[in-house]
Amino acid sequence: MKRKRMRLVLMVLTVILSLNLGSIVEASSAATPFSSHRWRQPEVTYVFKTKSNYYRSIYKKAIKAWNKTGDFKFIAGTSKDHDVVLTTSTATTGKYNMLAGITFTKANSVGYFTSATVKLLRKNLATYKYSKADRVHVAEHELGHVIGLQHSTNSHSVMMANNRYNAIAGVDKTAVAKRDIMAVGKSSLSLQ
Questions:
Q1: Could you read off the pLDDT of 90-125 as tens digits, one per residue?
Q2: Fewer beta carbons below 10 Å: N end or C end of the chain?
Q3: Domain identity same for 12 and 91
Q4: What distance in Å separates the CA atoms of residue 103 and residue 82, rounded to the nearest whole number?
Q5: Structural domain for 80, as ranges
Q6: Where is pLDDT greater, at 85 or 91?
Q7: SS3 101
Q8: Residue 114: inside a domain, yes or no?
Q9: Are the C-beta atoms of 88 and 55 separated by less than 8 Å?
């Protein structure tokens, strides 16, 4: 009788542990996906095409956060020599409907990014009452697209679609650190 009860207890514990470990493995494996495109080097130059000091400060905080990871670098460029344009828009219709930000990328036939434009959508950010911290997270998200990160299902990732509360997380840093082992392929437009 004791043996049967002990076996039952062990079986129940095994099932419980299996379910919990499965959840832990699943959560940790929800790494941020990386696109098939990437930059030739883990750095890009940028310029601001916005006169707003407020939005420049938001972009600067997001750039500082990505540069702090150590695996990709955003470097100030010049009006004639840059890879990425950081700007804002007041558009709210069409592809901009309800978005907080949008990133456009271009790549060559080999699959390397050649340029990118990031737009933070000021009217939508105001309409949906994004705080300054929320706006920095949106800028971090959009710069993640510039790097080559795609939307993530990980609830802690800065690359989660419709993100406004998450900063750059470990899963995002890991994906960027592994960017050099990713294959080069096709892509073009990254939303939100």
A1: 988 887 888 999 999 999 999 999 999 999 999 999
A2: N
A3: no
A4: 16
A5: 43-191
A6: 85
A7: strand
A8: yes
A9: yes
